[in-house]
Amino acid sequence: MRILRVAQNFDGHVFPLSEAQAKMGHDVTVLRPCESDERPGVFEQDGYTLVRKPCTFEIVGNKFATGVGKDLLRVNEYDVVHAHSHLFFSTNLASLSRVFGGTPLAITNHGVHSQSVPEWFSKAYLSTLGRWTYNRADAVFCYTEVDQRRLRKYGVTTNCNVVPNGIDSGRFVPDGATSKRIDHNGPTVLFAGRLAQGKRPWCAIRAIASVRDSGLDAHLYLCGDGPMRGTLKHLVEGKGISNAVHFLGQVPSEEMPKVYRSADVLVLPSRAEGVPRVVLEALACTTPVVTSALPPITDFVSESGYAVEIGDTPGFSERLKELLENPDRRAEYGKRGREIVKERFEWENLVDQTTKVLERLSRG
Length: 364
What we know:
Rossmann fold; 8-stranded mixed β-sheet; 20% strand
């Protein structure tokens, strides 16, 4: 099967999936716009072909690459196109190419709402261009039935396949080296994600400030980058905790297991999520979590950490403090978290189910 995978983001999902399908004997090409620190070109890696096109312009982190559009005019060379997230121009272009071409298209939903724009804008987009993008596809992948129902609410009528998110529990393991990036010997909290509105990283900063006010020498490490970095640094300075909040920037995916193992707790105070990879990866490393109380997450976080109402900074602070002061509870939640990942979110299951749907589409 000749697969064209179109994706601006989600390297931790897109690249391993492409590698796995290449090992299964499929011919996989990944088409994407360049990041600012990348060079355009055609590259062979891990058994598949990576094609990077120069970015023509960018809006709120959404990159438009004319070269991606041109390549999508030649999709008849492939048996199936697999695009990732309705939120990116590259997927909009893939849907447009489906209108004029005969190659079937599947789209994976990596989260219903954007984390980089106000919620009202995200809803308006999903009711218009987002819905159009999904309804041009032949199949949609959702991580949860909750997200499936959300798409139906916005008028998406394309067949939705619920395929739970997955991670490689053989790579994200509790035993092994830790990260030199996290050098605090005391209580340590990790935030992993884009520094954008939807992830609410300021809530993590305010929560850690409150934890420190209680007398606990806790440090927060923010792993990721984004448009709010400057604002967040001002917040940290204003609270006088610059020595306890560390901005790590983008960390290579191969180092993330070490980062998770170095933290006592992962915090994720987002306003919306599907089934976040960072939560699954942390749990696979037996690092307990404190997250927002969101329907797709609360189902399993109740056994592996705590879920707190969105925006309840005192609640986040209280739960973080409770876990940081109780190593036995951390160990208990961490152990159960890894069991949950192995029971419900194994990477091989996602690869198998996704590939079967793509094969069915390719056969018409």
